[in-house]
Amino acid sequence: MENVVNINFLGGAGVVTGSKFLLETSEKNILIDCGMFQGLKELRELNWIDLPIDVKNIDVVLLTHGHLDHVGYLPRLLKQGFNGKIIGTAPTLAIAEIILKDSAKIQEEDAQRANKENYTKHRPALPFYTMLEAEKTIGLFQVEMIDTWFTLSKNISYRFQYNGHIIGATYIELDINGKRFVFSGDIGRQNDYLLDDPKKPEWADFLFIESTYGNKLHKEEDIEEILSQLIKETILKRGNLIIPSFAVERLQTLIYILWKLYKSNKIPNIPIFIDSPMGNKVLEVFQRFPKWHKLSVSDYKAMCNHVTILESYKETWETIDNKKSKIIIAGSGMVTGGRVLTYLQQLIDEASSTVLLVGYQAEGTRGRQLQDGAHEIKFFGKYYPVKATIKSIESLSAHADQMDLLNWMSNIKNIPKNVFLIHGEPPALDAFRIKIKDTYQWNVTIPKLSDIQKLMV
Question: What count of other Cβ atoms lies within 10 Å of the Cβ of residue 42?
Answer without folding.
Answer: 9
